[in-house]
Amino acid sequence: MASQRICKATGKACVGMVKCPFLKLFGNSLPATSFNSLSQRFRESCPFLANKSGVSACPVNEAERSSPKFTDLESQSRPSAAPTFTKQLTFEEEEEHEGGAVEYSIRPDQKEMVIEAARKLSMDKNALPPKAMQALESKLESLKAEGKYRTFIPVERHAGHFPEATWHKDQASQKPIQVWCNNDYLGMGQHPEVIDAMCEATRTCGAGAGGTRNISGTTIHHTLLERELADVHDKEASLVFSSGFVANEAAISTIAKHLPNCEIFSDSDNHASMIEGVRNARVPKHIFRHNDLEHLEDLLAAADPSANKLIVFESVYSMDGDIAPIEEICDLADKYGALTFIDEVHAVGLYGEKGGGVAQMRGLSDRVTVISGTLGKAYGVHGGYIAGPAVIVDAVRSFAPGFIFTTSIPPAVAAGALASVKYLKESNVERDLQKERAEVFKGHLKKRGIPFLPSESHIIPVMVGDAKLCKKGADMLMEKYGIYVQPINYPTVPVGTERYRFTPGPLHNEKMIEEAVDALEDVFTHLGIVGA
To answer: What does the pLDDT look like over 63-90, one tens digit per residue?
Structure first.
């Protein structure tokens, strides 16, 4: 006896069903419970229903027809004007099958259109409940109304010509631009030695790592990279992660969890990744005011003298561009028996004789316990890492879920990062030029009276102070002048401190700098943004 067919609308056995070639693409993946809400989409999208209007999917008796459930379904499924593409579809009728079912098939040259319609329809299976949808849409609308909604700009960088790039406005429109908010601070992402190393590793090792570090995901490139990073920072060991965010979160939370009776002391302006690490450690935490040594000492003095203590802070703070008093924090750590964890992600490659960061530049590498860095900014590739005492690195390697349970970075990425780290370990040309360009840019801003936060780092925050104006100005800079700088607003910075974050590098020449500042001056004047 042939197996019975089940109607998706009623959940009951059907006799003499006409099988739709469109719905056939779904198999049993479309749940019967979703049929009511999707019936209108079936009518509009299904070429069989659109072309064979009036033919029911299955026979329905009169009792069912009068029920509220069917009345609602039928009202949603009445024939309507079919989309243009469905009118172009034709079907080839096949022989009648057992049980009276008639099979129809789609012409091969039209199947691609039908599959696309099926794909769009199947997305509705995961639609949110109305309350959840409304709540999220309301949140997003609020962001847009406040000028805080973030949009991605599709930019195509051109190797060998940075900071020149192409803005893909839409499928039919492109515009040449200059990138001014890039974290590839030294342009190492396009350096020939880095590109060659990545290409060679891909040819020899393939594209992916193939697993976690513990399960086939450790290659010779990973091993050599970690040795090189340890040497750059004058530490016993290092460990590479999938990103700088993961490195901070995993390391801070793991170290604090596995030190008995540990308390964390965290700078109030620390990056979100460090904040997550502090939270996930689930140990007592104390937040000291940004770079406030007196407040930090008050908190350390009030803590349990027998507790393990971990001070977490950054060297270069990425939004204001200021630098921490590293030596003084280390003095307090020595006085109160604390470990130090310094985030150098906006400093590695840029400062220090080997590119080891601000601590190295100031001769303090031996005084900080653990250093975290990134391979995705000045080194121009991707990934994050920590460097420190071998026992701490091994503990993080052995206990941190964020390291253990994620796929390793591809061997090509590790090879490219290794080439970049080794190059910047020896070359100061890029570092020196970058510092020079930053000072020239600041000088032009000061001369024009454009407000910016003075700092001793390479990061130049140009202040706007209003989210909507910040977005309008960024759009105007892009559209009129081809200057790409992203508006920075809450939650990255506090409300009322919205800004542009310029990062001139060694590949921005003086002519580019003058033109960028000219454009800024024009936009600030046009929008009425108050100067310094």
So the answer is: 444 444 334 333 433 333 333 333 334 4
